[in-house]
Amino acid sequence: MTKMVDISGKDTVTRTAVAEGKILLSERTIGAVKKKTVKKGDVLTVSQVAGIQAAKDTANILPLCHQIPLFSVDIVLKVQKDGIVARTTVVADYRTGVEMEALVGTATALLSVWDMVKYLEKDKEGQYPSTRISDIRVLRKIKS
Questions:
Q1: Partner of 135 at 20 to 30 A CA spacing, among 24, 89, 105, 123?
Q2: Stated pTM of the model
């Protein structure tokens, strides 16, 4: 039997979750991101907005998640030598946690990066031999 968990008996408290992940990219792609010469536009800004929107839509993506009125979604993208790290912080007052929203925000931000730079990452056969998204995880969750 599949069902959404009943949280009606739980107390409403402030809940925060932080999730992080990384996309590994070539030096060429990192250079284009830094110089803002990617054909589709500003990779970091577009991917940040995509992640925020996805975090807000988590209940539509994951069918058994509750619709949580979020107070804030903050996504920070940091360019590193070998890729881009996305860290998402989500805050809400609710009866259940916001870990899924933070994870969905992180994953979507990284997918958006890939979508925007894929033409730079393809090899001669149109494959992605070294591009990958990894280490998506919840760094912490806080109930206060």
A1: 123
A2: 0.96
